[in-house]
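User: I'm preparing a small set of examples for a lab meeting where we compare how different chains pack in three dimensions. I only have the primary sequence for this one, and I'd like the structure in token form so I can line it up with the others. Please keep the answer compact; I'll paste it straight into my notes.
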Amino acid sequence: MQVMQIGVPWAREAMRNCFPHDQPPEPELEDAGDVAVHCPKCHSEEVVFDDLVEQAAGAEAKYRWTCDACGYEWEDSGVETK
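Assistant: Understood. Below is the structure token output for the 82-residue chain.
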């Protein structure tokens, strides 16, 4: 879309309130709150997320973690366990 220079102020105002009809609204994500990840070996909270492990299509995602306190490395599904 092109707008003549004289119409730019009105076009900006119209664009500010313009939302595409074919684009679905963004889903509202719930905040997980203060969830701490603990090392399964030493139970330290000094845990670093390394990366997402490649999985076959349809398989559950796996996350790779490293403990800064003891150096232990592990993979899990990211689900909190007690």
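A couple of notes for your slides: The longest helix spans residues 8-16. The radius of gyration is 23 Å.

User: Perfect, thanks.
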